[in-house]
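Q: I'm building a small set of examples for a reading group on sequence design. Run inverse folding on the following structure and report the sequence directly after it, with nothing in between.
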C-alpha cells in the first residue's frame, strides 16, 4: 500500500510538471506571435499612434472601411472582432493603453452588443495566453467565475479552449502562418450573398446599462480620447427595430445610423452589410464626423 501511494504521488507530480512545462512552452510561442490576429497584433506592438481606432463586433469589423479613413489622412485600424462582445472590446482598449497607444478617436459599434454583459468564450480565449504577462488582461478576467482555474491551473486554459488556442493554433503560430484578419487595416469586406436570408427578429433584445460600455467611456475620458459610439445599419425587414430607439433613450450620446443605408443590395446578411454597403456607410461617417 505504501509503495502504491508513493507511486501515485510520483505520477501526480510528474503530471503536474509536464503541465507546467507545456504551459510555459505554449505561452512562449504566443508571446512571439504578431500576425495571427488582432489581439496578438496589439500585444506585440508598443507606443502606436492612431487618429482612429475602431472597436466592436462583426458589425464593426464588416462595416467600417479603414482604408477609406487612411485616404483622408487619418491613421486608422479596424479592431472589430467577429463574435466579440463589449467585454472583449473594453479589454482590447485596455490592452492598447497598457501598450502605451496614443489614440485620438475611438469609433465604437454599440448597438446589439449592448444587450449582454457576458464574454464570448471563443474571442476572449485569444487573450488567455497572455493572462500571466498582462495586468490589464489579468484584472479584466479576475471577476469571471472561472478565473482561478484559468490563472492558477497550469495548461488548463489551453485544454479548455483547445479549438481556439490549443495544438492546431500553436502550430500555426509557430510556423508564422498568416491570416486575413489583419488585411485591409483590419476591415473584413463581405460579398453579396444571393441566398442570404434578409429577415431578422430582434424583438426579444433589450439594451442594458452595460458595464463594459461604461468602462470604455471612462477609459476614453481618462485618456483624452474622443469616443464616437455608433449604431450601424440592419436590413429593413427586421422585426423589433424599435430596439435602436430604446438604445438611444438609454444612451442619448450613441448616434443612431441604423437607417443610414437601406436596400438589400447593400447587405450580405440581414445584420451585416456587404463591401458596397460598408463603403457607402463609411463615407457617411467620414462626412459627419471627420
Amino acid at each position: 500500500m505504501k509503495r502504491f501511494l508513493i507511486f501515485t504521488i510520483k505520477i501526480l507530480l510528474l503530471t503536474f510538471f509536464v503541465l507546467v512545462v507545456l504551459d510555459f512552452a505554449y505561452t512562449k510561442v504566443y508571446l512571439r506571435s504578431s500576425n495571427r490576429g488582432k489581439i496578438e497584433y496589439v500585444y506585440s506592438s508598443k507606443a502606436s499612434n492612431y487618429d482612429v481606432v475602431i472597436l466592436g463586433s462583426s458589425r464593426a469589423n464588416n462595416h467600417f472601411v479603414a482604408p477609406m479613413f487612411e485616404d483622408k489622412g487619418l491613421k486608422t485600424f479596424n479592431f472589430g472582432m467577429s463574435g466579440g462582445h463589449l467585454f472583449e472590446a473594453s479589454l482590447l482598449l485596455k490592452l492598447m493603453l497598457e501598450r502605451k497607444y496614443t489614440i485620438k478617436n475611438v469609433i465604437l459599434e454599440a448597438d446589439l452588443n449592448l444587450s449582454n454583459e457576458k464574454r464570448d468564450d471563443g474571442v476572449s480565449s485569444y487573450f488567455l495566453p497572455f493572462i500571466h504577462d498582462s495586468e490589464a488582461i489579468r484584472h479584466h478576467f479576475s471577476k469571471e467565475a472561472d478565473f482561478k482555474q484559468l490563472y492558477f491551473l497550469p495548461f488548463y486554459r489551453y485544454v479548455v479552449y483547445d479549438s481556439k488556442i490549443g495544438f492546431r493554433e500553436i502550430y500555426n503560430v509557430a510556423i508564422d502562418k498568416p491570416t486575413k484578419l489583419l488585411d485591409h487595416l483590419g476591415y473584413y469586406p463581405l460579398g453579396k450573398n444571393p441566398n442570404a436570408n434578409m429577415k431578422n427578429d430582434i424583438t426579444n433584445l433589450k439594451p442594458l446599462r452595460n458595464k463594459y460600455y461604461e468602462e470604455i467611456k471612462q477609459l476614453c475620458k481618462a485618456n483624452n480620447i474622443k469616443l464616437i459610439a455608433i449604431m450601424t445599419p440592419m436590413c429593413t425587414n427586421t422585426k423589433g427595430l424599435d430596439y435602436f430607439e430604446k438604445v438611444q433613450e438609454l444612451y442619448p450620446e450613441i448616434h443612431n445610423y441604423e437607417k443610414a443605408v437601406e436596400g438589400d443590395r447593400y447587405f450580405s446578411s440581414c445584420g451585416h452589410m456587404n463591401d458596397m454597403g460598408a463603403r457607402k456607410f463609411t463615407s457617411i461617417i467620414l462626412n459627419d464626423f471627420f
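The chain has one domain: 2-289.
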